[in-house]
C-alpha cells in the first residue's frame, strides 16, 4: 500500500475517494429524489429545496448560482450585507418614534405656546438613538437640542440636523475650533475659556455664541450665582462674545422635599435680575429639567429642557400622577435553546438556581454586555406569549435563561416554548408588562442608568 492509498495516516488523508463515496450535496439530492413520492416533506427534502431554489435558497448569497456541481460556491460580500441584523442575532431594541412625538407634544402643551423646549439627546438620546430622536423631536415642535459632548453635537450636524445645539458643559479649550466650525454653542463659566473662544472666533470673522452656566447650589459647574456680574465684567468687553442664554440646573426638582429647590430658584432669579440691572441681556433664560417642567410652572422661564421625559420615563414617582408619558423603548429577544432540566440540577454560573422539576429552561441571547444587568439575576421577569415567566440563574455576559412552568393550571394557558419564539424583556404584551422602572427599582438605581445600558451592542429598530 502506498502513502497515497492510506485512508488515514501520519502522511495525511488519501486523495482517492473511498469506494461508494458521494458528496454531501449528492446524498441530499438522492435522498430528496427517493422521498419525492411521499406526502410530507422530510428534513432532507427541505434542505434540498433550499440548496436548489436559487435566490430563495442557501445559495442566494453565492456569486454564481449556475456553476458546475464540482465547483464550490463562493460567497458574494455584497449579498452577505443584505442579511438583516435580526437574522444575525436574536436580540434587539425597538424605539417607538410615535411615543417620542406624543411625549414632546404633552410637554409642549403643559408649558404653553410662549415657552421653548430643548430636547436633551445626550448619551445617544439616553440609549434611544440621538439622530433619529433629535429629528423626531424637532419635527414635533421642539426648538433646541442639548448634548453633553462636542462629538455628540458633531454627530447631529453630520446627520444634517440644523437646529441650535447647546453643549451642556464647558468643553476643553482644544475643542473650540470644532465648536465654531460646526456652529455648536458651549456652556461657559471660566474667563480663560470665554476669552480664547472669543479670540478664535474673531480670527475667523465669526461671533462666539454661548450660554452662561450659573451655579445656584448643585455645585457641579457654573459661575457662582452671586458672582455673575463680576464674571461678565471680566469677559464682556470682547466684541466676538455673544451671550445667547443663561441657565442653571436643579438638583432636587424631582424630590418630594422642596426647600433646596426653592433656594436654587431664589438664587437663579436674583442672578438673572442682577445681570439685567448691570446692563447685560441674559438671553434665553432656562432652568427647568423634566421634573421642574412638569411640577413648577413658575420656573418655565423662556425655555425648558426635556430630558428623560422625552423617552417616556418619569424622573421620579412624584411626577407620575401629573402627566401621561409613553415609554419609547422595548427590548426583545428570541429563544435560542429550550431544554428540560431534571429536578435539583443547576442552571448558569454558580448554580444558584436549581430546577424544581416540571419546567423548561429557555435561553435568550442577551446578557449584561447588552445592558441586562447582572444584578437582575433571578429578580426580573420576561414575557412569553403574554405571560410573565421568571428569569432564573445568573445572567451571563451574552445570554440569560428563564423558566417556563410546564404544569397545567385551570386559570392559565399552558405554554410550549420553541426555539425562535419572541420574548419581551422590557415592554407590554396584553396585560403583562415589565418596565425599565421595575428594573431600576430592583437594582436600587434610576431608570436613566438602565435605559442607557441597553444601547451597547444590540441592533436598534425604529417603529
Automatic annotation (TrEMBL):
<dbReference type="GO" id="GO:0005829">
    <property type="term" value="C:cytosol"/>
</dbReference>
<feature type="domain" description="Alanine racemase C-terminal">
    <location>
        <begin position="328"/>
        <end position="463"/>
    </location>
</feature>
<feature type="modified residue" description="N6-(pyridoxal phosphate)lysine">
    <location>
        <position position="122"/>
    </location>
</feature>
<dbReference type="InterPro" id="IPR011079">
    <property type="entry name" value="Ala_racemase_C"/>
</dbReference>
<dbReference type="GO" id="GO:0030632">
    <property type="term" value="P:D-alanine biosynthetic process"/>
</dbReference>
<dbReference type="GO" id="GO:0030170">
    <property type="term" value="F:pyridoxal phosphate binding"/>
</dbReference>
<dbReference type="InterPro" id="IPR000821">
    <property type="entry name" value="Ala_racemase"/>
</dbReference>
<protein>
    <recommendedName>
        <fullName>Alanine racemase</fullName>
        <ecNumber>5.1.1.1</ecNumber>
    </recommendedName>
</protein>
<dbReference type="Pfam" id="PF01168">
    <property type="entry name" value="Ala_racemase_N"/>
</dbReference>
<comment type="pathway">
    <text>Amino-acid biosynthesis; D-alanine biosynthesis; D-alanine from L-alanine: step 1/1.</text>
</comment>
<feature type="active site" description="Proton acceptor; specific for L-alanine">
    <location>
        <position position="349"/>
    </location>
</feature>
<feature type="binding site">
    <location>
        <position position="397"/>
    </location>
    <ligand>
        <name>substrate</name>
    </ligand>
</feature>
<comment type="similarity">
    <text>Belongs to the alanine racemase family.</text>
</comment>
<comment type="function">
    <text>Catalyzes the interconversion of L-alanine and D-alanine. May also act on other amino acids.</text>
</comment>
<keyword id="KW-0663">Pyridoxal phosphate</keyword>
<keyword id="KW-0413">Isomerase</keyword>
<dbReference type="InterPro" id="IPR001608">
    <property type="entry name" value="Ala_racemase_N"/>
</dbReference>
<dbReference type="InterPro" id="IPR009006">
    <property type="entry name" value="Ala_racemase/Decarboxylase_C"/>
</dbReference>
<dbReference type="InterPro" id="IPR020622">
    <property type="entry name" value="Ala_racemase_pyridoxalP-BS"/>
</dbReference>
<dbReference type="InterPro" id="IPR029066">
    <property type="entry name" value="PLP-binding_barrel"/>
</dbReference>
<feature type="active site" description="Proton acceptor; specific for D-alanine">
    <location>
        <position position="122"/>
    </location>
</feature>
<dbReference type="GO" id="GO:0008784">
    <property type="term" value="F:alanine racemase activity"/>
</dbReference>
<dbReference type="Pfam" id="PF00842">
    <property type="entry name" value="Ala_racemase_C"/>
</dbReference>
<feature type="binding site">
    <location>
        <position position="220"/>
    </location>
    <ligand>
        <name>substrate</name>
    </ligand>
</feature>
Amino acid at each position: 500500500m502506498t502513502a497515497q492509498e492510506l485512508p488515514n495516516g501520519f502522511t495525511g488523508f488519501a486523495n482517492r475517494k473511498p469506494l461508494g463515496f458521494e458528496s454531501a450535496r449528492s446524498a441530499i439530492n438522492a435522498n430528496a429524489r427517493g422521498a419525492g413520492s411521499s406526502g410530507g416533506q422530510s428534513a432532507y427534502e427541505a434542505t434540498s429545496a433550499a440548496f436548489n431554489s436559487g435566490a430563495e435558497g442557501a445559495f442566494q448569497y453565492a456569486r454564481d448560482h449556475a456553476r458546475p456541481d464540482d465547483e464550490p460556491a463562493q460567497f458574494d460580500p455584497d449579498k452577505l450585507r443584505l442579511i438583516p441584523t435580526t437574522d444575525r442575532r436574536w436580540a434587539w431594541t425597538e424605539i417607538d418614534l410615535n411615543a417620542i412625538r406624543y411625549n414632546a407634544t404633552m410637554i409642549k402643551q403643559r408649558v404653553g405656546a410662549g415657552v421653548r423646549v430643548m430636547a436633551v439627546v445626550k448619551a445617544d438620546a439616553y440609549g434611544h438613538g440621538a439622530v433619529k430622536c433629535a429629528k423626531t423631536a424637532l419635527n414635533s415642535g421642539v426648538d433646541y437640542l442639548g448634548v453633553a459632548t462636542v462629538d455628540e453635537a458633531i454627530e447631529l450636524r453630520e446627520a444634517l440636523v440644523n437646529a441650535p445645539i447647546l453643549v451642556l458643559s464647558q468643553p476643553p479649550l482644544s475643542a473650540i475650533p470644532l465648536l465654531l466650525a460646526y456652529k455648536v454653542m458651549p456652556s461657559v463659566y471660566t474667563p480663560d475659556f470665554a476669552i480664547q473662544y472669543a479670540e478664535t472666533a474673531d480670527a475667523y470673522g465669526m461671533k462666539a455664541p454661548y450660554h452662561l452656566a450659573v451655579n445656584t447650589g448643585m455645585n457641579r459647574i457654573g459661575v457662582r450665582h452671586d458672582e455673575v456680574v463680576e464674571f461678565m465684567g471680566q469677559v464682556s468687553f470682547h466684541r466676538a462674545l455673544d451671550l445667547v442664554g443663561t441657565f442653571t440646573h436643579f438638583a432636587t426638582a424631582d424630590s418630594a422635599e422642596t426647600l433646596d429647590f426653592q433656594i436654587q430658584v431664589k438664587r437663579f432669579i436674583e442672578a438673572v435680575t442682577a445681570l439685567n440691572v448691570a446692563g447685560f441681556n441674559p438671553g434665553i433664560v432656562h432652568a427647568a429639567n423634566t421634573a421642574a417642567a412638569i411640577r413648577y410652572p413658575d420656573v418655565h422661564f423662556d425655555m425648558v429642557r426635556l430630558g428623560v421625559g422625552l423617552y417616556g420615563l418619569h424622573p421620579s414617582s412624584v411626577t407620575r400622577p401629573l402627566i401621561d408619558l409613553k415609554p419609547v423603548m422595548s427590548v426583545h429577544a428570541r429563544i435560542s435553546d429550550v431544554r428540560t432540566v431534571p429536578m435539583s440540577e443547576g442552571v448558569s454560573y454558580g448554580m444558584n438556581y436549581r430546577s424544581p422539576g416540571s419546567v423548561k429552561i429557555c435561553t435568550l441571547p442577551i446578557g449584561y454586555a447588552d445592558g441586562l444587568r447582572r444584578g437582575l439575576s433571578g429578580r426580573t421577569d420576561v414575557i412569553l406569549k403574554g405571560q410573565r415567566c421568571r428569569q432564573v440563574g445568573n445572567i451571563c455576559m451574552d445570554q440569560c435563561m428563564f423558566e417556563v412552568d410546564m404544569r397545567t393550571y385551570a386559570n392559565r394557558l399552558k405554554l410550549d416554548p420553541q426555539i425562535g419564539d419572541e420574548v419581551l424583556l422590557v415592554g407590554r404584551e396584553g396585560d403583562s408588562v415589565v418596565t425599565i422602572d421595575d428594573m431600576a427599582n430592583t437594582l436600587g438605581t434610576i431608570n436613566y442608568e438602565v435605559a442607557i445600558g441597553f444601547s451597547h451592542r444590540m441592533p436598534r429598530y425604529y417603529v
